[in-house]
Design goal:
The complex is a heterodimer of chains A (312) and B (285). Chain A has 312 residues and is α/β, with parallel strands linked by helices. Chain A has helices at 3-13, 31-35, 46-58, 69-75, 77-85, 114-119, 132-144, 188-200, 218-227, 243-253, 275-281, 286-294; strands at 17-21, 39-41, 62-68, 92-96, 125-127, 149-152, 171-174, 179-183, 205-209, 212-214, 230-238, 260-265. Chain B is of the alpha/beta class. The chains are: A alpha/beta (312), B alpha/beta (285).
């Protein structure tokens, strides 16, 4: 099932759902014809769209709102905070091409602080699916919840079949005593490769797909930290405010500590290029991740990374 | 003022269009939106603006801000033709070894400010125009906007402020190609009567055919249009201008052609051929 199929089904089953976009039609191309008046394209007006979503939600609607993640979370930030966050209105934000998925667009389009700023707003929940299968497993609960939500849309296809989603719970893929990788979003695909390499180097390796970043699964973080000698936070986000920070907050809150290695974008925007080149250049391929954890080079093979079928 | 030679301008614009077609592969670019802006950008750098490879650091040079951003292949191509950018670098489009990607950035000499997020550079241009007023310079400041970009409220905030500060050294140029990313502007968020809107905000407005160099020259030669008023030029253009097989096609927004299509489109630019496009259409914003 695709994002658009799920949204179509959801909107047809629930008359309260309104699909909105700031002229970002990639995910909702067929919906104008299907939903008629319940499809609203406000043009390139992210702020006005969020304000309008608040107005619709005031009237009991559930707006599912689309724009590029960078403009949805940053251009409209204060509207999200003030018009959705303060009253806690259940608008559902779908941010397109978040993180490294903006590949060749450049820093203007890089949403790599989106987790940090969205999770900082009281009432706003934050989600980051690993791939399309994860996305369509997560969204029904996200859309049914009574809170405003921001989802990092990721429609990449992987071979992995995810477990059912429970809001606020992480998906434990594997447990390990040497190292556990905590990740979310696009890099899950590379983490799977890294785990294989680390295992073949003789390590006992855990992997957790965080899925729900707010509310976060504190127990999953605490268990991994207690079980493993090393915890790795892997994210296509600034090192500030994302998963590394979340792990630090959770460990401190529970008055414990752990050896944590952050693999993230360290205080810089990434070099714009096509996605496979970006992953390689920024050190985010599975092989590079594994080698950073190991501390030495290996002869393992990095599988080919496919270019996304969309661009902005 | 630079010289005006329509024959030369046409030849330069055709070369720029060839560069754009060559960048529309191996990852692609915003081909249609670039083609609509070519004649404007070529005209401004060739015949209106006092900007060249030798005066990029001179505070008395003129400024061009490309707020539309995604039409940057037209700017790269113009820079390559006018000697501001080594032509060989256009082959580095999307390469990790250069800075030539889908939106402008200041690693490319001559680009005054990065863009890509719409509705930012009208305000940056205002700041530059204000300083020129304060410091008493004679430089001109041009800011190119897309018509879809005019959806963003900051464009209209900028008009209010430019009017309040009587920035007659500032020229907003609208590349009026009548398309948003996915649909015609008038079918989504209607802009017309656009000239009246700008006039009501206090601007001195000219509306011309943005592919007609004589009309462009006549309009810009009248700068400043009216003392104490911000200048607006609405340039009516055609998205995809020069390539009939993509002109005014909503489904050819972002183009990533295959090698064979590129060769055929290069012939099409010279008017001898119509290309049958088979590459997947990518229409995303």
């Amino acid at each position: 099932m695709t994002y658009e199929q799920l949204l179509t089904e959801t909107a047809l089953a629930n008359e309260q759902v309104i699909v909105m976009t700031a002229e970002n039609r990639a995910l909702v191309r067929n919906l104008p014809g299907i939903l008629g008046k319940r499809f609203i394209d406000t043009g390139i007006t992210e702020q006005t769209m969020i304000g309008a979503a608040a107005g619709l939600a005031l009237r009991g609607r559930i707006p599912v709102v689309h724009a590029l993640a960078a403009f949805l979370t940053m251009r409209a930030f204060e509207f999200v905070r003030t018009d959705l966050g303060i009253p806690g209105l259940p608008a559902k934000l779908s941010g397109f091409i978040p993180g490294l998925l903006s590949d060749g667009n450049g820093p203007t389009h890089q949403a790599i602080e989106d987790i940090a700023i969205m999770r900082g707003i009281p009432n706003v929940t934050v989600f980051a699916p690993a791939d399309e299968d994860d996305l369509v497993k997560m969204l029904p609960q996200i859309w049914q919840s009574a809170q405003p939500a921001y989802t990092r849309i990721n429609t990449r296809k992987t071979w992995y079949e995810h477990a059912p989603f429970v809001l606020g719970k992480a998906e434990v893929i594997a447990e390990g005593t040497d190292v556990t990788i905590l990740t979310y979003g696009l890099l899950f695909e590379q983490a799977l490769i890294a785990v294989e390499i680390l295992q073949s180097e003789g390590l006992s390796v855990g992997l957790i797909n965080m899925r729900s970043l707010k509310p976060v699964d504190e127990q999953a973080i605490l268990t991994a930290s207690a079980q493993s000698k090393l915890v790795v936070t892997l994210e296509d986000h600034f090192v500030t405010g994302g998963l590394y920070t979340i792990v630090a907050e959770v460990l401190l809150k529970h008055q414990t500590t752990a050896r944590v290695l952050p693999i993230a974008l360290n205080n810089k925007w990434f070099k714009p290029a096509l996605l496979p080149d970006v992953l390689q250049h920024e050190g985010f391929t599975g092989k590079q991740i594994a080698e950073q954890i190991l501390g030495y080079k290996t002869t393992h093979h990095q599988p080919e990374i496919l270019t996304p079928e969309f661009s902005e | 003022m630079n010289n005006f030679n329509e024959h030369e301008l046409r030849a330069t614009a055709l070369n720029v269009r060839e560069h754009i077609v060559r960048m529309s592969t191996d990852g692609g670019c915003f081909t249609g939106a670039s083609l609509s802006a070519v004649d404007l950008i070529v005209y401004l750098y060739s015949s209106f603006l006092n900007v060249n490879a030798d005066n990029l650091a001179d505070p008395n040079r003129d400024y061009l801000f490309l707020s539309k951003g995604h039409d940057v292949p037209a700017l790269y191509g113009t820079f390559a033709e006018l000697g501001l950018l080594d032509k060989a670098r256009l082959g580095n489009h999307l390469s990790l070894n250069d800075h030539i990607y889908w939106h402008p950035n200041t690693h490319i000499p001559g680009i005054e400010f990065h863009s890509g997020s719409l509705g930012h550079l009208p305000s940056v241009a205002i700041g530059v125009a204000m300083d020129i007023k304060i410091s008493g310079g004679g430089n001109k400041v041009v800011c190119i906007l897309g018509d879809g970009e005019l959806n963003e409220g900051t464009c209209w905030e900028a008009m209010l402020v430019a009017n309040a500060y009587k920035l007659d050294n500032l020229i907003f140029v609208v590349d009026r190609n009548h398309f948003q990313a996915n649909v015609r502007t008038e079918d989504l968020i209607p802009l017309e009567p656009l000239a009246d809107k700008f006039a009501a905000f206090g601007a001195a407005v000219k509306r011309i055919n943005g592919h007609n160099f004589t009309a462009l020259h006549e309009a810009f030669s009248a700068y400043p249009f009216e003392q104490g008023k911000v200048n607006v030029v609405i340039a009516d253009t055609v998205r995809g201008k020069g390539l009939p097989s993509i002109e005014e096609r909503a489904d050819r927004w972002f183009c990533n052609f295959n090698a064979d299509e590129v060769e055929q489109l290069l012939l099409e630019l010279h008017g001898e051929h119509q290309t049958l496009l088979t590459s997947e259409t990518l229409v995303v914003r």
